[in-house]
Amino acid sequence: MERQFETIERAKVNEIDEILGQPFYVLDDGFVRIIDYIGDDSSIVQAARVSYGKGTKKLRQDRGLIRYLMRHHHTTPFEMCEIKLHVRVPMDTWRQWIRHRTANVNEYSTRYSVAIDAAYQTNPDAWRTQGTDNRQGSEGVLQQNTGETLSRQEQTFQNQARTIYNERLEQGVAREQARKDLPLSTYTEAYWKIDLHNLLHFLRLRMDDHAQYEIRTYAKTIGEQIVRRWTPIAWEAFHDYRMTSAAFSKMELDLLKAITGGKDEQAIELAKSNGVLKEKEGQLKPNLELREFEAKLKSMQIKPPWS
Amino acid sequence: MERQFETIERAKVNEIDEILGQPFYVLDDGFVRIIDYIGDDSSIVQAARVSYGKGTKKLRQDRGLIRYLMRHHHTTPFEMCEIKLHVRVPMDTWRQWIRHRTANVNEYSTRYSVAIDAAYQTNPDAWRTQGTDNRQGSEGVLQQNTGETLSRQEQTFQNQARTIYNERLEQGVAREQARKDLPLSTYTEAYWKIDLHNLLHFLRLRMDDHAQYEIRTYAKTIGEQIVRRWTPIAWEAFHDYRMTSAAFSKMELDLLKAITGGKDEQAIELAKSNGVLKEKEGQLKPNLELREFEAKLKSMQIKPPWS
Amino acid sequence: MERQFETIERAKVNEIDEILGQPFYVLDDGFVRIIDYIGDDSSIVQAARVSYGKGTKKLRQDRGLIRYLMRHHHTTPFEMCEIKLHVRVPMDTWRQWIRHRTANVNEYSTRYSVAIDAAYQTNPDAWRTQGTDNRQGSEGVLQQNTGETLSRQEQTFQNQARTIYNERLEQGVAREQARKDLPLSTYTEAYWKIDLHNLLHFLRLRMDDHAQYEIRTYAKTIGEQIVRRWTPIAWEAFHDYRMTSAAFSKMELDLLKAITGGKDEQAIELAKSNGVLKEKEGQLKPNLELREFEAKLKSMQIKPPWS
Amino acid sequence: MERQFETIERAKVNEIDEILGQPFYVLDDGFVRIIDYIGDDSSIVQAARVSYGKGTKKLRQDRGLIRYLMRHHHTTPFEMCEIKLHVRVPMDTWRQWIRHRTANVNEYSTRYSVAIDAAYQTNPDAWRTQGTDNRQGSEGVLQQNTGETLSRQEQTFQNQARTIYNERLEQGVAREQARKDLPLSTYTEAYWKIDLHNLLHFLRLRMDDHAQYEIRTYAKTIGEQIVRRWTPIAWEAFHDYRMTSAAFSKMELDLLKAITGGKDEQAIELAKSNGVLKEKEGQLKPNLELREFEAKLKSMQIKPPWS
Fold first, then answer.
1. Of B157, B173, B180, the CB nearest to A120
2. What average pLDDT does the segment A1-6 reach?
3. CB < 8 Å to D102, chain C
4. Mutating which of D184, D188, D215 best tests the C interface, going by the most C Cβ atoms within 10 A?
5. Catalytic residue list of A
6. Cβ C249–B245 below 8 Å, yes or no?
7. Nearest Cα to B37, choosing from D8, A99, D98, D225?
8. ipTM above 0.95, yes or no
9. If you average pLDDT over residues B98-109, what whole number do you get?
10. Residue D109: its chain B contacts at CB < 8 A?
11. How many CB atoms lie within 10 A of CB B198?
12. Burial status of residue A302 (CB atoms within 10 A of its CB: 0-12, 13-18, 19 or more)
């Protein structure tokens, strides 16, 4: 029991403390605000070393360690940072958000209180068309005049939904039942508390191009406005090893080796034997997996030998 | 390595196997169906004994052990049973359901597919009025003629919501965006897989009188139609030690002791000194906590001495 | 977007800040230290109201709300507080501790570092005898002279274990393998981060009389030294509604009603018909469940009619 | 409610049913046995389609979908399969195993029962030496004669530990306390139930070369003997997209592009400007991150230009 413990202070991030409680606005009426947090970059290092008090190493070493942890998916030290946010989100978006289970949540209750009188409205120039490649995504927008019709129609409909909701309440209908026909675009609010590892996992999925525009906008706000300030070294490592990295399967590595080695024929045979390249009426047809590989080649400015 | 292992077979519950895939209908267009499961009552016992193969004890002993585990909140053996359900639920109800985080979920995707063309409609005689005591509940129903007006209005509104949704799709709006004004009453479907411990926790909260009628109806269906058949001994223990039990705080036990001991004055003083009973203008006013205690007394046909 | 947000500050608990990093010693060489935290009692209220900034209600109302939440098992607001501890614990105790899954953990690595050179030693007067009632517990202690023998034997053995460990390291054996015969009494350290709801659940189970002495001592330290200072209102509510409360099954309530109503014969018949009381050779024999009920009666100074 | 539901049967995997309960032996006295399961490859597809009963698609399409889900980290459909294992493991290994929190566990209780009388013994030719590169791993083995000494010493020590344990029990020491000096090599048993997604995550980490030999052996047994039989298509996809794939950071992709494009100088400059390559006394010194990249290049038979 001879061990000496210095008095310590809470980890403190000035850049966050300065904006505590201030809203970052998202969509037409949403926001994200920081309420509180535990930890900073040095807390990740501390947890990895489980040796609090050994004296602060130089920043350079800390950065190297954090990057090593991120690169090798040593995730538990990132769990030692925690952040509590207050968010305002359309219910439609919240339905996706809430699927991330490892978080603490207190949502605004429309059983207990009258529903928030705001719905997310789409501007005339923001009606997106159905993606053709990606069955669950969107691409491009509708023409302005069509968009204007749809936006007018939406506003009328949302107003009517609210009128019906209010009428039910006036008639004495219980709030828990009156709400049943509110549109999914209705805003809700919640406190959302999550550790940094699970937050980064959320961001990786939701900042992705395949995520829906709305939740992607929230995710980018949280990532670029909040995490970047809160744990800048972890954020940089996340960017380098998660957001801008690419994974190659064994087959892709073999193809890459053949292609960069100048063995185009071998690459084509390899693709064929793996069933990702078919010959149809004299033409080579890559399947979905191979087209995904082509995209990676393209980003490296390498031309696939079968095209 | 001399230990001998008999060949074993999967735990099998005939009463469940007979109804596998058959829907239990809930609300006007919802259902719950069993898809698959792991374990039965004996699996709970097996886990508690961690001694598989010791030969089956007599039912009586197994029942005693399961009841002991339930009574003493030894929850992990109940986690060794797992069930997979297919459910169809209004989104409004699903918003409550999904808050139970320790479960596996695959929900019908309205990004990938056109939204289910069905919404939960309220009958004229089923519009509930706002609870007065319970700020988040309902009690009683509206008059029939008011109900008829509300139901007609709802049907028109839901039809209109669908028309707008369909028009958006026809205009080429992406499904992920077209859905944004669908009413919360729209049905969704999901596979939902959960272990027995967490399922019972869900049932305790959602079969409760304070739970909203809709989710309560689903919970009762799952409990009374499914769990009762699947693990009848655990179900009985759950009924006895969770659903129909009552908890008494130290203060309540002290009050109970005084009252049943015939010491009414002492009970009143105790309540006062605990701040749950106030004298106002010569009248004794119990606060919310004491009124909750009165309800427990009432169920035991004991009259509180302050009333 | 007209809504005004005041600048906020982090929730801060002076009583905790003053002792940050200071060890509470436990057992012969263990400790618990607070590293950081999110939230205080008011954060629970804030989450329950999901209405941050509405102005602080009077303490009295906050206290009432926290007690209401605790009484009715509305657990999510308690998840909005989080605490990070640094603990030093024998591995044997840690094996129980780690079973609480909803927490973040970074443990001292004996793959990466040489094992901590300390083992938990039992004093001559602290060798506990096997419980007779409770098959998994202990009661009483062995005689001093036996205890002295056992303690001497332990110390020799622990020294020898360390000698062997060190010899293996000197021979070049990998740390990950050299450790394999370290005794379970060897100390380990960890950062442990958990939300208040899950911490209270941990405390309810581990402060219980049935919990093993060692982990109970840690739990009591965390509860009485840390949580009591951190969130005093929640702690008081936890004490009143969890630690000193008692649950009665429907059968127990019926028995209680009969007994307090002076209907002893009816109580006996009820117990018999429920199978918890048997007549053997002219004697009434309560089973385990009824004996548990007797204990509750005893705490209310009520005599069971069958004894 | 017109929708017709066919009667369904439980997903059934003959290759698993045939070996149910049979042990796969691991280490000198450990095993893994399958007790029960939910689902098979088709259940993953079913969950992804959330459209049970639409008729079985051709195997080819199912395989393509499962591979797509794996490639794109769409993890929830894999959670719809669940498996329950009975394992026997040294406590030292179990300490690593239990860190995987998303699983259900019932471990053999040494409070309730006498500890299993078996400890994991290391053969004379199996004493591994400390890794030099990898600070937490091992590499190579000690010489046979040193190994013989260590193994003899271990056996004596383990016997002695058992003797002391037994003596304590004979003296009447409570089991919960008598066990405190058992070596970490003592075997324990547990039921372990986990969904396929979390199991694959466990396998990815624990089948890795960096995992400790002991847990790696268990992981390989579970993977190659059990998952391969249970969900062969998911297993194959896991192999291709997780176990044998490689991730490249943006910097690594840029380096790869330069190198395969024949621009060695540019690659070297890039590495320098990223701080991963230093010039020291006329020599180019790659740091840890760059050496990891070199290993990936090597597996593609590409020579780094700085070496």
1. B180
2. 70
3. 101
4. D184
5. 206
6. yes
7. D8
8. no
9. 95
10. 50
11. 18
12. middle
Most D CBs within 10 Å, among A249, A257, A259, to test the D interface: A249
The shortest C-alpha distance from D86 to chain C (Å) reads: 18
Residue of C nearest to A6 (CA): C21
pTM, to two decimals: 0.95
Report the pLDDT value the prediction gives residue A43, as an integer from 0 to 100: 96
Which burial class, exposed, middle or buried, applies to A280 when counting CB atoms under 10 A from its CB (0-12, 13-18, 19+)? exposed
Query: From the list A1, A38, A86, which residue is nearest C29 (CB)?
Result: A1
- Residue D160 identity (one-letter amino acid): Q
- Would you state the CATH architecture of domain A14-116+185-243? 2-Layer Sandwich (3.30)
Q: Over the stretch B56-70, which tens digit does the pLDDT of each residue have?
A: 455 568 899 999 999
- Identify the active-site residue in C99, C206, C229, C291: C206
Q: Is the dihedral of CA B46, B51, B53, B55 positive or negative?
A: negative
Which residues in D lie closer than 8 A to residue B111 (C-beta atoms)?
A: none
> In Å, how far from its chain's centre is CA B93?
12
pLDDT (average), residues D287-292:
93
Return the percentage of chain C with pLDDT > 70, whole number. 95
Q: Give me chain D's average pLDDT, please.
A: 92
What class, spelled out in words, does domain D14-115+185-243 have in CATH?
A: alpha beta
Pairing type for strands A138-141 and A82-90 reads unpaired
Asked whether the beta carbons of residue C181 and residue D158 sit closer than 8 angstroms, the reply is yes
Residue C241 buriedness (CB in 10 A; 0-12 / 13-18 / 19+) = buried
Q: How far apart are CA C41 and CA C46, in angstroms?
A: 9
Q: What is the C-alpha separation between B69 and C155, in angstroms, rounded?
A: 38
Please give the structure tokens belonging to residue B150: 């509300």
Q: Which residue of B has its CA nearest to A111?
A: B136
Q: What is the pLDDT of residues B40-95, one digit of tens each?
A: 999 999 999 875 334 445 556 889 999 999 999 999 999 999 999 999 999 999 99
As averages over each run of 10 residues, the pLDDT of chain C (307 residues) reads 78 96 97 97 92 48 92 95 98 97 94 94 96 75 96 98 98 96 98 98 95 97 98 97 93 90 92 94 92 90 89
SS3 (DSSP) at B104: strand
Residue D214 has pLDDT above 90, yes or no: yes
Q: Tell me the shortest Cα–Cα distance from B102 to chain D, in angstroms.
A: 9
Contacts with C14 (C-beta within 8 Å, 6 or more apart), sequence order: none
Of the candidates C119, C142, C164, the beta carbon closest to that of D153 is on: C164
Q: Do C302 and B248 touch (CB under 8 A)?
A: no
Among residues B67, B77, B13, B14, which one has the least CA distance to residue B45?
B77
Chains in touch with D (≥3 Cβ pairs < 8 A):
A, B, C
Q: What single DSSP character describes residue D186?
A: B
Q: Which chains touch B (3 or more CB pairs under 8 A)?
A: A, C, D
Please tell me which residue, B285 or D301, carries the higher pLDDT value. B285
| Position D40, amino acid | D
CA D29 to chain centre: 19
Q: Do C173 and D142 touch (CB under 8 A)?
A: yes
Write out chain C residues lying below 8 Å of B246, CB-based. Answer: 247-248, 253
Interatomic CA distance for residues D196 and A68, integer angstroms: 28
Q: Where in chain B is the domain with CATH 3.30.1360.170?
A: 14-116+185-243
Q: Which amino acid is at C138?
A: S
Could you identify the residue written with the tokens 């023409």? A143
